[in-house]
Amino acid sequence: MDKKINVIINGVVFETKPGKTILDAARDAGINIPTLCFHKDLCVAGNCRVCVVEVVGQNRLAASCATPCNENIEVLTNTLKVRTARKHIIELLLSEHNADCTRCYKNGNCELQELAAEYKIMSEDLIPLAPYKNYTIDMFSPSIIKDDSRCIRCQRCVRTCAELQGVNALSVAYKGDKMKISTFFEKSMNDVVCTNCGQCVNHCPTGALIEKNYIEEVWEAIADPEKHVVVQTAPAVRVGLGEELGFAPGMRVTGKMVAALKNLGFDSVLDTDFTADLTIMEEGTELLTRLKKVLVDKDDNYKLPMCTSCSPGWVKYIEHMYPEMLENLSTCKSPQQMFGSLAKTYYAKARKLDPEKVVSVSIMPCTAKKFEADRPEMHDSGYRDVDLVLTTRELAIMIKQAGIDFMKLPDVKHDRLMGDSSGAGVIFGATGGVMEAALRTAYELVTGREVPFENLNIKSVRGIEGVKEATIKIEKPLDNWSFLDGVELKCAVAHGLVNAKKVMEAVKNNEADYHFIEIMACPGGCLGGGGQPIPTNPEIRERRAQAIYEEDAGLSVRKSHENPEVIKIYNDYLKEPLGERSHHLLHTNYTRRERY
Amino acid sequence: MTQTSELINALADKHGRNRENLLSVLQGVVRQEHYLSESTMVEIAREMDLPAAEVYGTATFYSFLEYKKMGQYVIRICKTITCSMKGKNQILLTIEDMLKIGVGETTPDRKFTVLQTNCLGWCHKAPAMLINDEVYTELTPEKVREILSEYLKK
Amino acid sequence: MAKEYNLKRADFIFRNENDWENILSRTLDKDSRELINELISSELKGRGGAGFPTGLKWKLTSEAEVAQKYVICNADEGEPGTFKDREILMKVPFKVLTAMAICGYITGATKGFIYLRGEYKFLQPDLQKVIDEFAYYCKEIGFDFSIEIFMGSGAYICGEETALMESMEGFRGEPRNKPPFPTNKGYMGMPTVINNVETLAHTYTIFKHGAKKFYDLGVQFSRGTKLFSVSGDTPKPGIYELELGMSLSDFVDEFGDGDTKAVQVGGASGFLVPRKRFGETSIGYKGKLTGISLPTGGSMMLFNSTRSMFNVLDNYLEFFREESCGQCTPCRVGCQQLHMGIKAVKQGQKPAVYLDKLLKLTETMQYTAKCGLGQSVANSFSSIVENFREEMIY
Fold first, then answer.
1. Which residue of C has its CA nearest to B60?
2. Cα→Cα distances C68→A14, A53, A544, C62, Å
3. Which of A562, A563, A532, A558 lies closest to A545, judged by CA?
4. B47 to chain A, closest Cα gap in Å
5. Where are chain A's structural domains?
6. Are residues C140 and C278 in the same domain?
7. Which of these three, C149, C183, C212, is where a domain ends?
8. Does residue A79 belong to the interface with chain C, where contact is any CB pair within 8 Å?
9. Do C172 and B22 touch (CB under 8 A)?
10. pLDDT, tens digit (0-9, with 9 covering 90-100), for A337-380
11. Residue numbers of A annotated as active site
12. B134: which chain C residues are within 8 Å (Cβ-Cβ)?
């Protein structure tokens, strides 16, 4: 198990474990080897060849990411031969690439550009191939732009879409000089099984896959004196944004984020966490209703297990892959869309605003949210419920454009009315968080007692495991819920669509008897979303998750049903969960889509 | 079921529905229909429980798995070194002249498609061409005219 | 012929004595370790071009302790200028099948495949009949080994052994990272022996006549005979079985048209040898103390003085840029750059010294490409550009 082997890198002996690659060993030893196709989330491809090193005794260079260490292997990472080869490879990549960096969205945040800068590729020796390539740009998706001219064919996106998400919207097509990353028959990303999760965007080293950005539209809205611009901030944004603005991963910047948004000129800075709490009220009630209808009334119109519907990537995935199971999906809108329909109704009314003049902006860790806001059914307020969706990255760009010294900002609180949140709302940003929040509320609704976990922390649904299961036995319920006495509520949590598939297959094949399933499309949940800062990798996701749970632990209100603003909105406006107004504003329906 | 889906179903029954059977199924369809259309690939993906993009990506890798509509007879003229040296261009001109189409095109009656291909392995009998699976070697313009005349009669 | 040729013709491969049943049952009676040692002592090296010692390959696979192993016959003969494997499969297919079965016996594999290139589809029906007959015999003698044909679909790169396995598994034919090697993790992740058609045919000779007979042919490090596919400017194109180690000048004396300017040894991925080097070049694996030894999969293309070496290189590079699988940078982009680069020089858009930049680039391709295709583009490129530079320039 703990066998160690020696490797000699640049003349110095280091210990490593058998099975580690040269790249692993070198990085452990603090020696940097450049990479492009390598990503910690993905299997090794070994196709860019930038990471080549010299292995003493071999004429050919070895791709360090794909070469395992042998005992006493002697590696040289910085010889003339290695440097020349790397330089050539970078030159080759640049020659095939639209290297018009100043006109690229990823300018300044591009791994190819960084390498070119590091290796000082100045010559224009090689023939630019891009003009011969008939490259196309696909801009039809509301979430993602695919620009083939920026692609270096590292296949990270293909591996991401297959290994992390099991969606396979992207594939490698053709061969030789025509080889490219393509969808089925080169259709638009908008016309294939793409879930818009944006993991490909997050994993792309260059500007070949980027989010469709709406920064200018937001600036315009802010500048328009006629418009009242409200902004909502999703739970995971506050634990990611700092990374783009000088902080280490895992820093909570909630207060600074609010200050920055106010600085940018938003009229009101509100919180998606509030509607996350509201989602719990609706979804928790929906779950209990379904349990009653199925278990007691034996009503076939209601289906179990009930699956969460907060993650628009997941929603589109199930619409494509399991259209026959759409009735298992909770009818609750996601917190973003609940917020949207309330912003132009409840909020506008309370603030005496003309809803037509309200521009509703959301800051999301997610690219699929752009698609979600664009869905035709999301107009329940009588207007487009959410007008503009920005990712965490886009917000960071705006903050930089505004010249704000983010690190020196004071901590400011969200505005009131729809800006208060409980810890339960916060943890929506992490895998297992919706489940935990729902259980905190539902258990208490049913039994009148708090969930039987220390400090309300339901640890079994937290963590990086792809599929997690939890069972809670309901004992001594209140009279209304007596039918649940002794019922073991079986829950499953999955993140990353490849794991969602595992759970859904089990359900489909009657191999699992869950009551409630939480699914988030992205690895780690929203904190690892496709709209979060690049890079995102396992360590960074873990730091962000820690930050989320710290935020939860630090709040005085930790249960959705105790959020004073939630209590207020039911008293003043919605009356009751699943009530008529809720049904109209907070619930939705789904579309069957083709799998192919 | 359409004719194509029946064919795909039969091929999958014969070869299997695992990933390693994909090439055989694709080849079987091309044998019958000369190319793989969009709907055919969707059908294959469904039948074999594979992502459509994967089927597309795999098919487009192989020169003989055409994804554009082909004629009944696909003429592939070898363009690699020895055939080039031994008069491939004259052969090509002869064919283009007879069929009134260029490389990559299909005759309006969908009978012939003319393509160029890489080494067919008949360098000692160059120039060579394939018409579907049939090989013709040591071609001369006269010989090609004779061969094509036969096909035109079919 | 007055002059005594150093060129020794042989006739093992295509000599068909219809004795395969006898050879098969006789060999299956022997101890498998003994057979491996026999094969190792013959010093047979892979005849596809790479030249890996065949005995060692079988030995490594036999040592793996797993339930399922495979034997694959690589009949994806795609190298420009080679066509010998097809002839073997047409004329003496039983030798190949027998060799596969013996390999199965030695390594513990019970399943064999012949990966037949799509261009040879017309061979399939006849070959299938032979396989059926062979299967019948195996059943009769109670030997558990089955052989299946797997058809390729037009991709040169699938001749690369790991690309071939990817293709058989239903994927794009993209070469894998090595290690692991097929002897360890091959088809379906199982230990696999993969041999060229001709290599297998030679093992038949060895099992029939003994290793010594084979070893005594050829020269040191290059034992035995080899099939040569002769094409280009020659009065007698065709397939010839010759002992390894001959000098290229003897070869040209025999096969040239009297005006041979250069010979491409080993196909587009091999080396071009100009006339002035015929004398010092011998055909075989590295190891001779003096002169140049060129290994080859058997492709010998002759060019006479009417041929433009620019056109030849242009043709090769077009071939490579189309047939590269496209996954690794040096090969995918490198081939495009070389192809466009020589054209730019020829047309005067780039200076002659640009050829030196390209030569450096081919070195990088050789050092860094993922598989043999990208690594060997440098061979023909540098040997043509260095020897016929004047033909490359505007």
1. C172
2. 38, 35, 46, 11
3. A532
4. 11
5. 5-78, 92-211, 215-274+336-408
6. no
7. C212
8. no
9. no
10. 999 999 999 999 999 999 999 999 999 999 999 999 999 999 99
11. 283, 286, 310, 330, 369, 372, 377, 526
12. 122
* C309: amino acid identity, one letter: M
CATH number of the domain at A92-211, please?
3.30.70.20
The DSSP 8-state label assigned to residue A562 in this structure reads: G
> Which of B56, B64, B117 should one mutate to test binding to chain A, selecting the residue with the greatest count of A CBs within 10 A?
B56
- For residue B118, the chain C residue with the least C-alpha distance is C319
Nearest to B81 among C120, C153, C312 (CB): C312
Write down the pLDDT at residue C128: 98
Q: Taking CB atoms and an 8 Å cutoff, what residues of chain B touch C79?
A: 119
In a domain, C6, yes or no: no
Tokens of A95: 């020659």
Cβ–Cβ gap A95/C366 under 8 Å:
no
**Residue B53 contacts C, CB cutoff 8 Å:** no
Domain for residue C4, yes or no?
A: no
* Whether residues C174 and C243 fall in one domain: no
Q: Among residues C262, C283, C304, which one ends one of the domains?
A: C304
CATH code of the domain containing C347: 1.20.1440.230
Phi-psi sector, C111: left (phi>0), alpha (psi -120 to 50), beta: beta
Query: Domain range holding C49?
Result: 20-212
Asked whether residue C293 is domain-assigned, the answer is yes
CB A383 within 8 A of CB A344: yes
Q: Which amino acid is at A40?
A: K
Average pLDDT over residues C384-392: 97
* Test mutation, A138, A159, A168, A321, chain B, max B CBs within 10 A: A168
Q: Are A330 and A310 in contact (CB under 8 A)?
A: no
Q: Which of residues 153-192 of A touch B (CB under 8 A)?
A: 162, 167-175, 182-185, 192
pLDDT at residue C289, rounded to an integer: 47
How far is it, in rounded angstroms, from Cα A342 to Cα A331?
Answer: 17
Domains annotated for chain B, with CATH where assigned, are: 3-61 (no CATH), 73-153 (3.40.30.10)
8 Å CB contact of A173 and B56: yes
Give the span between the Cα atoms of A430 and A527, in whole angstroms: 6
For the beta sheet containing A52-55, the strands, ordered from the edge strand earlier in sequence to the opposite edge, are A12-16, A5-9, A73-76, A52-55, A62-63
* Residues in a beta bridge with C149: C114
Q: What is the pLDDT of residues C239-279, one digit of tens each?
A: 999 999 999 999 999 999 999 999 999 999 999 999 999 99
Q: What is the largest CA-CA distance in chain C?
A: 70
CA distance C370 to chain A (A): 7
User: In angstroms, how far is the first alpha carbon of chain B from the final one?
Assistant: 30
Tell me the H-state helices in A497-563. 497-508, 538-553
Q: A215-274+336-408 maps to which CATH number?
A: 3.40.50.1780
What are the tokens at C341? 């680069």
A129 CB near a chain C CB, below 8 Å?
Answer: yes
Q: Are residues C266 and C374 in the same domain?
A: no
Residue from A553, A523, A585 nearest A455 by CA: A553
Q: Phi, psi at residue A510, to the nearest 5°?
A: 55, 30
Where residue A406 falls among pLDDT bands split at 50, 70, 90? very high
What are the structure tokens assigned to C252, written together? Answer: 């040209």
Distance of CA B116 to the CA centre of its chain: 10
**Which one of 3.50.50.60, 3.10.20.740, 3.30.70.260, 3.30.420.40 gives the CATH number of domain A5-78?**
3.10.20.740
Within-domain flag for C294:
yes
Q: Classify residue C159 by its DSSP letter.
A: G
> In CATH, what number is assigned to the domain containing residue C76?
3.40.50.11540
- Under the banding of pLDDT at 50, 70 and 90, the label for residue A411 is very high
Three state DSSP letters for A59-100: CCCEECCCCECCCCEEEECCCHHHHHHHHHHHHHHHHHCCCC
